[in-house]
Amino acid sequence: MRIDISGKRVLVTASSSGIGKGVARAFLKEGCKVIISSRNKENLDKTVSELKSSIFPSVWGVQMDLTDYHSIEAGLRQIIDLMGGIDVLIFNFGNPTNEPSYFDETTMEDWEYSVRMYLEGPIQILKRLLPFMRRQRYGRIFFLSSWTVKSPQSHFTLADVSRSPVIQLSKILSKDEGRNGITVNTVLMGSFPTPGAERSLKRIAERKNESYDELWKREVLSPIAVGRIGDPEKDLGSLLVFLSSEYGGYVTGSSILIDGGSSPYVL
Ligand SMILES: NC(=O)c1ccc[n+]([C@@H]2O[C@H](COP(=O)([O-])OP(=O)(O)OC[C@H]3O[C@@H](n4cnc5c(N)ncnc54)[C@H](OP(=O)(O)O)[C@@H]3O)[C@@H](O)[C@H]2O)c1
Questions:
Q1: Which of 26, 31, 113, 225 is the right S-S partner for 6, CB 3.0 to 4.6 Å?
Q2: Which intervals of the chain form a coiled coil (predicted)?
């Protein structure tokens, strides 16, 4: 099987670092035109020049804060001017403010930020980009989520509650858009080494008064059946590249688990 998705126009949200950046690299390696985006222009510029210097010329940075209606609108205008539409739309996210936090510790501002980022931001983007996909009769949409939506964690209450409705949205869109050549899937991610994951685990370790290394071994590494943490580019990026190719057209409306076998669930 030879996969050719070269030239596809790809947008990865929240991708100046971590998972989003790794996924962007995977598509750049396949010869796609990739737009990375995030809130912070400095981070974006740094990542764009790093990717360009790794011999990936077809990368652009567009500032877009998923919690800010006007920022998204301005970003979308830029993207449409630049690319005339998008073929592969990958929704990655930042982290809620104050994460990890238990329900009692959250404020209404935290909820507003989290729901805006995980749900309303993507809806706003979909409303603008779906018509382009319909016209070209091809599109791939991925919502990068977490295995924790199957087993919500108290200290991730903001993220796990706010990103769960996206699974319903993903299913509904897969049914409505399948005949237009558009597939829509949610990806339930396990553990990937990123600045965000490290930050979060450090805070949990502090709260539990435990060493970071011990917590990492016990809670992160030891449950992973294959005995290693995931690589955002090689493990996750390759899966998304495959699903974006002509061979991925029959996979839609699914919640795909990619966690190295750490989840205890069979379904
Ligand atoms: N790492 C894991 O093991 C893991 C596992 C399951 C799920 N997840 C989820 O995957 C997502 C990404 O995690 P990560 O570990 O890669 O985090 P990360 O290393 O902190 O990276 C987050 C990225 O999102 C951007 N960002 C943050 N807030 C944003 C906003 N409001 N609008 C647009 N961009 C924003 C950041 O850039 P700027 O600061 O420049 O905006 C950065 O590029 C999170 O939702 C996390 O819960 C992670």
A1: 31
A2: none
| Protein residue with least CA distance to atom 8, ligand 1 | 146
193-236 residue pLDDT tens: 999 999 999 999 999 999 999 999 999 999 999 999 999 999 99
Q: In terms of DSSP bridges, do strands 59-63 and 88-91 run parallel, antiparallel, or are they unpaired?
A: unpaired
Residue extents of the structural domains in the chain: 9-192+231-258
Task: Report whether residue 107 contacts ligand 1, using a CB cutoff of 6 Å.
Answer: no
Tell me how far apart the alpha carbons of residues 27 and 88 are, in angstroms, rounded to a whole number: 10
Residues contacting residue 227 through CB under 8 Å, at least 6 positions apart: 221, 260
Distance 206 CA to ligand 1 centre (A): 21
Written as six digits, the tokens of 233 are: 């580019």
The ligand 1 atom at the shortest distance from the C-alpha of residue 66 is 32
Q: Does residue 177 have its Cβ closer than 6 Å to ligand 1?
A: no
Any atom of ligand 1 within 6 Å of the Cβ of 113: no
For domain 9-192+231-258, which CATH number applies: 3.55.40.20, 2.40.50.140, 3.40.50.720, 3.40.50.1000? Answer: 3.40.50.720
Residues 102-133 have pLDDT tens digits of: 999 999 999 999 999 999 999 999 999 999 99
Spans of the chain below 70 pLDDT: none
